[in-house]
Amino acid sequence: MRLWNMKTRLEFLGTGTSQGVPMIGCDCEVCRSADPKDKRYRSSAFVQYGGLDILVDAGPDFRSQMLRAGIRHLDAILLTHNHKDHTGGLDDVRAFNYIERAPIRIFCEKYVEESLRKEYSYAFSEIRYPGVPEWQITNIDDNPFLVEENVPKVRLSWVDGKGYEKIPCRQPEHLKSVEVIPVRGKHFNLPVLGYRFGKIAYLTDMNFIPEQEFAKLEGLDHFIINCVRRGKHLSHFSLEEAIAIARRVGAKHSWLTHLSHRLPRYEELCRELPDGILPAYDGLVIESE
Ligand SMILES: [Zn+2]
Ligand SMILES: [Zn+2]
Ligand SMILES: [Zn+2]
After folding, report:
1. What's 276's domain CATH number?
2. Which domain holds residue 237?
3. Ligand nearest to C-alpha 234
4. Does 2 map to a domain?
5. What is the pLDDT of residues 145-154, one digit of tens each?
6. How far is the CA of 18 from the centre of ligand 3 (A)?
7. Going by DSSP bridges, is the β-strand pair 200-202/190-197 parallel, antiparallel, or unpaired?
8. Quick check: is 1 in a domain?
9. How far is the CA of 202 from the centre of ligand 3 (A)?
10. Measured in angstroms, how far is the CA atom of residue 251 from the centroid of ligand 1?
11. In angstroms, what CA-CA distances link 250 with 137, 184, 214?
12. Which ligand is closest to the CA of 265, given by its number?
């Protein structure tokens, strides 16, 4: 089911690099800026697509981002890669386990799951401490995959002194589902997935996109690409590279994310970017046409 014409809404929950902006202890002009658009949580996006609520990445600012955006329901979390600025908030999905009475579904590559199993060993142990996060992980690769609405197969019922008990429950006959197109990129030597939802594509933490992946980026209304600073960087696109890729992709609108304090302040950066390319900021909402 390829629903290219389905409307997509994307809210930027965070647009900052791994340390966020302002950076702890920094007195530079960007870190001291009073403009709210220069305050950047770690990168994450909330996508509403085909009636589903999908989060891309859950970094260390996850809790604050959910509260600020007033998000009370998630059908799935898609992870781009295993770095902490994209996975460090996953313990806080406990809040969603509690309000939805269901495990939260996570889609990621196998190596990302292996990394989560080490970093969050307590969430995977045989004898579990009551109240650890409940995740249901699905491995994906660079082939399109379906995300279904999260109508749980089990209900989590809290039993005092014991933790959650899992009670099987009936699924409706027809679940809403959407097809997501992963887009492969490289982050120095680490494989990363970006995601396309209809006419919006969100790519972060890349410094290389293989040639064949550009076919997946045709006909976009909005293209989001990471950019960390001016000048070559080992694992992220530079400002110059991000502009060149945005031009090649040729979406109606292009947005830069994962920005660091080494780029100019928001207003200044807007002035120097070519037509059709703008820096994203926390709280910005874009919609496909
Ligand atoms: Zn990152
Ligand atoms: Zn700074
Ligand atoms: Zn990264």
Report:
1. 3.60.15.10
2. 8-287
3. 3
4. no
5. 999 998 877 7
6. 7
7. antiparallel
8. no
9. 14
10. 23
11. 34, 18, 11
12. 2
